[in-house]
Each structure stands twice: as C-alpha cells, then as structure tokens.
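Problem: given the chain below (73 residues), write out its structure.
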Amino acid sequence: MKVTVTGRKAEVLRALQHAKGDWVGGPALANVACGGSEGLRRLRELRELGYVIEKKKVDPKHNYYSYRLVTDD
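Solution.
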C-alpha cells in the first residue's frame, strides 16, 4: 500500500513521476532543488513504502546510476 509522502521525499517522487517512465540521473535527485544531499536515501525510503523504482548503471566505468518509477498504468 502506498502512502502519502511529504517534504523532500515528495520532491524526489515528483521528479520520478514527472519523467513519465524515463530514467532520471542520481545527481538530479540529490541536488538542492529536489531531494537535497540525502535524495538517494529518500529514494530508498520510497521503495520501502512500496514504490517500485528501477536502478541501472549508466556507465560500467563509473559509479553513476539512473532511476525510474515503475507505474501500474
């Protein structure tokens, strides 16, 4: 069951929803305009609340990931 989220966690969720299934880079979720320095922790918390969020490595040579929200559409 998904619950209502607020604050910075809601900003991370909103960014993923706004992407409409496209990939969103980790730094975009962990900047001052979105989830703040703890944006990726907030993303993990969203998963714990029941949101299905996929993760993929952008480049095998770098520790950089992108994320997308999987919806039930």
